[in-house]
C-alpha cells in the first residue's frame, strides 16, 4: 500500500511540472505587454523598456519560466501590481468561500444523487426510474444562471426564507453564513446530481447482473444489504471519479454562481484579475487551482484502492 | 415412500426474446429424496441451468415460470419474497459454475461467509467467525483464519470454489444445487472438488443436485440421472441402470462424446452432429430427431413422452430406443 502511494505521488511530479509550464505559457503568450499595462497609455518607450528590464521581460522565455518556477517552489507566486497583495494572500482570503461552496454543493449533490441512483437501479425500467431519469436529463440541460434565478425567486423573493446575496465568514456568524450558502450550493448541486445519479445508476445496473449478486440473493441476504453492501461499493468507482472531477472544478471557483450570489470566492478573484489584466494574480491562481485539481485526483486514486482491493494489491 | 424433499412439477420457463418466446424449460417433472443426489446432464443451452434457477427462484425478471417447485412442503414459486429469503442460504444453497465471478471482489472472504451465517443462524460475531474458520477447514483451506481477512483475488480458482462451497454449506442446507461446479476449474482440481462435495454431502446428509454437461461427472456420484435436451427431460434413471442400458440415442451420443484414454491418438471424437433446435421455434416432433441416426418418420410427427422401461424408475422419451446388448459399467 505504501509502495502504491509512493508510486502515485511520484507520478504527480511530471503532471505538476507540465501544469506549471502551461500556466506560465498561457499568461506569457497573452497579447499585450505587461510593462505597458502597468505603466498605462502615457508611458514613454524608455520607461517601458526600463520596466521590462526590471521585471526581466527582456529575457528569453525559457529563462523567465525557470526563474518564475524557482520562485514558485519557494512559495513565492508573485505580487499583484495593482493591489500589492501577494498571490497567496489573495487566494488565502478567498479560498474558504470557494471551499465551503464546493463542499456544500457536493454534499447536497451526493445526498440527492446517490439514493436516487440506488432506488432507480433497484427497479430499473420502473415508473420511479423513468421519472427520475427524465428529471435528471431535464436538470442537466438547465444552465446554472437559470437555476439560480429560479431559486432566488422562489426562496428569497416569494417565500423569503433565505437571503439572495451576500456573505459573512463562518467564524463571525455561523448560522447566517450557512443561510447565505444554501442557495448557491443548491444551484450547483442541482447541476451536479444528475451526473452523479446517471453514472451510479448505470454502474449499479451492470453490477446487479453479476454472478456475485445472484449468489448474494441465493444466500438469502436482505435486499437492502445486497444493494448497499454487495452492489454499491463495486459500482462506485466511476462515481468517485466524477465526484473528484466535480470537486476539482468547483475548487477553482464558480464564476457564474459566485457572481450572481455575490460570494467573494476564487471565481470572482479570477474574473477580477482578467478584467484588470492582473497577470501575476491570474497566473498564480490558475497554477494553484490546477495543483488543487491534481491533488484531488491523487486522492481519487487513493479512494479507488480503498474501494477495490484488487487495485490495492496491484492486480487490476 | 416418504414425500420427496424437492418435487419439480410440470415446470416450464419461457424467456421473451426479440425473436419470440424462448422455451428454456419445457414441462419438466423431477423429484429428489432427502440425502440423495440427482445429476442433471445435457449440453449447453439444454435448459439445465434455467431449471436450477427456477428452483432457486433466481430467474431473469422477464422470465415466465409455470408449474410448481415443492420444497420441503412449500411451493417456492408462490412463496412470499420474505419467506423465500429466509429459506435461501439456510435450507437451499447453491454453488455456481465460475468461482471467479460468483464471489464479491470487494468484500473479504470472512465477510462473505459470516454474513450468511449471521443472517440465518442466531450467532454473534465471534461465534460466526469460529464457525467460518471451521467451515474453511472442512473444505480443505489451509490457514483458514488468515484467509478470512483476504479477498477473493488473492485465492486460486480451486480455492475460491472451495470457499463458495463453504458458504453454501454454512447453514447446513437440506439441498445443495451445484451448477457445473467444476467446469471453470483445472482438470486436476475437478475431481478434488467433486469428492469434497460428495464427502460433505454424506457427512451432512443433505440432498444434492449436480448439474453438468459431462456424464462422467455423475457416474458413480449421483443416485439418479436426468438427461435434458432442448428443455425437456429425455431420459431419467437410477445411475446404475442408466449406464447399464441407455434407451435414448441422445444419452448414448453424450457418453460417446467424452474423450477416453484408451483411444488411439488422432482419433476424432464422435461429436454429435448438428445443433440443438432453435428454442424459439419448437419442433412438432422429437427435438433430437434432426440429429438422430435412429430417427424414423414418426419422430418428425409427434413428441415422444417419458415411458417406463423394464427397470423400475427408468424413464425415456423415444420411439426408437436403443437395443443395447452390452452394458457399460458405471
From TrEMBL, chain A:
* Main localization, broad class: membrane
Q: Where in the cell is it found?
A: Cell membrane
- Provide the ABC transmembrane type-1 domain boundaries: 95-304
A Gene Ontology biological process noted in the UniProt record is:
transmembrane transport
Q: Which residues cross the membrane?
A: 9-30, 101-124, 136-156, 176-196, 255-275, 281-307
> Which keywords does the record carry?
Cell membrane, Membrane, Transmembrane, Transmembrane helix, Transport
- Establish whether keyword Membrane is in the entry: yes
Q: Name one GO cellular component term.
A: plasma membrane
Which InterPro entries does UniProt cross-reference here? BPD_transp_1_N (IPR045621), MetI-like (IPR000515), MetI-like_sf (IPR035906)
Q: This chain belongs to which protein, by name?
A: Peptide ABC transporter
Species: Bradyrhizobium yuanmingense
TrEMBL record, chain B:
Where found, per UniProt?
Answer: Cell inner membrane
Q: Please indicate which superkingdom the organism of origin belongs to.
A: Bacteria
Q: Which InterPro entries match?
A: AAA+_ATPase, ABC_Ni/Peptide_Import, ABC_transporter-like_ATP-bd, ABC_transporter-like_CS, Oligopep_ABC_C, P-loop_NTPase
Q: Could you tell me which SUPFAM superfamilies the record lists for this protein? A: P-loop containing nucleoside triphosphate hydrolases (SSF52540)
Query: What PROSITE patterns does the annotation carry?
Result: ABC_TRANSPORTER_1 (PS00211), ABC_TRANSPORTER_2 (PS50893)
| UniProt keyword list | ATP-binding, Cell membrane, Membrane, Nucleotide-binding, Transport
Q: Which PANTHER family match?
A: DIPEPTIDE TRANSPORT ATP-BINDING PROTEIN DPPD (PTHR43297:SF2), OLIGOPEPTIDE TRANSPORT ATP-BINDING PROTEIN APPD (PTHR43297)
Topology relative to the membrane? Peripheral membrane protein
**UniProt-listed GO biological process terms:** peptide transport; transmembrane transport
Endpoints of the signal sequence: none
Q: What does this protein do?
A: Involved in beta-(1-->2)glucan export. Transmembrane domains (TMD) form a pore in the inner membrane and the ATP-binding domain (NBD) is responsible for energy generation.
Q: Which Pfam families match?
A: ABC_tran (PF00005), oligo_HPY (PF08352)
What is the name listed in the Swiss-Prot or TrEMBL entry for this protein? Peptide/nickel transport system ATP-binding protein
Q: Does the keyword Secreted apply?
A: no
* UniProt cross-references to Gene3D superfamilies, sorted A to Z: P-loop containing nucleotide triphosphate hydrolases
Its GO CC terms are: plasma membrane
UniProt domain ABC transporter: residue ranges: 6-255
Amino acid at each position: 500500500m505504501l509502495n502504491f502511494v509512493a508510486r502515485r505521488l511520484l507520478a504527480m511530479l511530471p503532471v505538476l511540472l507540465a501544469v506549471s509550464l502551461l500556466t506560465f505559457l498561457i499568461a506569457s503568450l497573452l497579447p499585450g505587454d505587461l510593462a505597458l499595462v502597468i505603466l498605462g497609455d502615457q508611458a514613454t518607450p524608455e520607461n517601458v523598456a526600463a520596466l521590462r528590464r526590471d521585471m526581466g521581460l527582456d529575457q528569453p522565455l525559457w529563462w523567465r519560466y525557470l526563474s518564475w518556477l524557482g520562485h514558485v517552489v519557494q512559495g513565492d507566486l508573485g505580487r499583484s501590481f495593482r493591489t500589492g497583495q501577494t498571490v497567496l494572500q489573495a487566494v488565502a482570503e478567498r479560498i474558504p468561500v470557494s471551499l465551503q461552496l464546493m463542499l456544500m454543493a457536493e454534499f447536497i449533490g451526493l445526498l440527492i444523487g446517490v439514493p436516487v441512483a440506488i432506488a432507480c437501479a433497484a427497479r430499473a425500467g420502473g415508473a420511479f426510474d423513468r421519472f427520475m431519469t427524465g428529471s435528471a436529463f431535464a436538470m442537466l440541460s438547465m444552465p446554472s444562471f437559470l437555476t439560480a434565478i429560479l431559486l432566488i425567486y422562489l426562496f428569497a423573493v416569494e417565500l423569503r426564507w433565505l437571503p439572495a446575496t451576500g456573505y459573512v465568514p463562518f467564524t463571525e456568524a455561523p448560522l447566517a453564513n450557512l443561510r447565505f450558502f444554501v442557495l448557491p450550493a443548491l444551484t450547483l448541486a442541482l447541476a451536479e446530481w444528475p451526473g452523479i445519479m446517471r453514472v451510479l445508476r448505470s454502474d449499479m445496473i451492470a453490477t446487479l447482473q453479476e454472478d456475485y449478486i445472484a449468489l448474494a440473493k441465493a444466500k438469502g441476504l436482505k435486499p437492502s444489504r445486497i444493494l448497499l453492501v454487495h452492489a454499491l461499493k463495486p459500482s462506485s468507482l466511476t462515481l468517485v471519479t466524477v465526484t473528484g472531477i466535480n470537486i476539482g472544478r468547483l475548487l477553482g471557483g464558480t464564476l457564474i454562481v459566485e457572481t450572481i450570489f455575490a460570494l467573494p470566492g476564487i471565481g470572482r478573484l479570477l474574473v477580477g484579475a482578467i478584467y484588470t489584466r492582473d497577470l501575476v494574480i491570474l497566473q498564480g491562481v490558475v497554477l494553484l487551482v490546477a495543483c488543487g485539481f491534481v491533488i484531488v485526483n491523487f486522492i481519487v486514486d487513493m479512494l479507488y484502492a480503498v474501494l477495490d482491493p484488487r487495485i490495492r494489491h496491484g492486480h487490476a | 415412500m416418504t414425500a420427496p424433499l424437492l418435487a419439480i412439477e410440470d415446470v416450464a420457463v419461457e424467456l421473451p426474446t426479440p425473436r419470440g418466446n424462448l422455451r428454456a424449460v419445457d414441462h419438466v417433472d423431477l423429484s429428489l429424496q432427502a440425502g440423495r443426489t440427482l445429476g442433471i446432464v445435457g449440453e449447453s443451452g439444454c435448459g439445465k441451468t434455467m431449471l436450477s434457477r427456477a428452483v432457486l427462484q433466481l430467474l431473469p425478471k422477464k422470465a415466465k415460470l409455470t408449474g410448481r417447485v415443492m420444497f420441503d412442503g412449500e411451493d417456492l414459486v408462490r412463496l412470499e419474497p420474505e419467506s423465500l429469503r429466509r429459506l435461501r442460504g439456510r435450507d437451499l444453497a447453491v454453488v455456481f459454475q465460475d468461482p471467479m465471478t460468483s464471489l464479491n471482489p470487494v468484500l473479504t472472504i470472512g465477510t462473505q461467509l459470516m454474513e450468511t451465517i449471521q443472517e440465518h443462524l442466531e450467532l454473534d460475531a465471534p461465534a460466526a467467525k469460529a464457525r467460518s474458520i471451521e467451515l474453511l477447514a472442512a473444505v480443505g483451506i489451509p490457514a483458514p483464519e488468515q484467509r478470512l481477512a483476504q479477498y477473493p483475488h488473492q485465492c486460486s480458482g480451486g480455492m475460491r470454489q472451495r470457499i463458495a462451497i463453504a458458504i453454501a454449506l454454512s447453514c447446513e442446507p437440506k439441498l445443495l444445487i451445484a451448477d457445473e461446479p467444476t467446469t471453470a476449474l483445472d482438470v486436476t482440481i475437478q475431481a478434488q472438488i467433486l469428492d469434497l462435495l460428495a464427502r460433505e454431502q454424506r457427512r451432512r446428509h443433505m440432498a444434492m443436485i449436480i448439474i453438468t454437461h459431462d456424464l462422467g461427472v455423475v457416474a458413480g456420484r449421483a443416485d439418479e440421472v436426468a438427461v435434458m435436451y432442448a428443455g425437456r427431460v429425455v431420459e431419467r434413471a437410477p445411475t446404475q441402470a442408466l449406464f447399464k442400458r441407455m434407451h435414448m440415442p441422445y444419452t448414448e451420443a453424450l457418453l460417446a462424446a467424452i474423450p477416453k484414454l484408451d483411444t488411439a491418438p488422432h482419433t476424432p471424437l464422435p461429436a454429435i452432429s448438428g445443433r440443438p433446435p432453435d428454442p424459439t421455434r419448437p419442433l412438432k416432433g422429437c427435438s433430437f430427431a434432426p440429429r438422430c441416426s435412429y430417427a424414423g418418420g414418426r419422430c418428425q410427427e409427434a413428441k415422444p413422452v417419458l415411458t417406463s422401461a423394464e427397470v423400475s424408475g427408468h424413464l425415456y422419451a423415444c420411439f426408437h430406443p436403443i437395443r443395447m446388448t452390452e452394458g457399460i459399467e458405471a
